[in-house]
Design goal:
87 residues; mainly alpha; Non-ribosomal Peptide Synthetase Peptidyl Carrier Protein, Chain A; 4 helices; 52% helix; 0% strand
């Protein structure tokens, strides 16, 4: 697991206030929505806001490509790595 994946897992747990879940409980390739982690559209919006604040991402309106980026922690890590503002 990459450091970025670990950061994103911690961000998911803290931003969404998933008190019964530890970051290590989330598999990098586990679906975040539906049958996987079970997030819903409101969680997706909150996660998007947290990613914008944390990584300076520019996230446009939801479309199929964006849904694919939010599919798993691993996909999110690739998206963040490619699109975050330079430190």
């Amino acid at each position: 697991m990459s450091d970025l994946e670990a950061e994103i897992k911690r961000l998911i747990v803290s931003a969404l206030k998933l008190e019964d879940l530890q970051p290590d409980d989330i598999a990098a390739d586990e679906p975040l929505f539906g049958d996987g982690l079970g997030l819903d559209s409101i969680d997706g919006l909150e996660l998007g806001i947290a990613l914008r604040k944390t990584y300076g991402l520019k996230i446009e309106a939801a479309n199929e490509e964006l849904r694919q980026h939010f599919a798993t922690v691993a996909a999110l890590a690739r998206f963040v790595a490619a699109n975050r503002e330079p430190a």
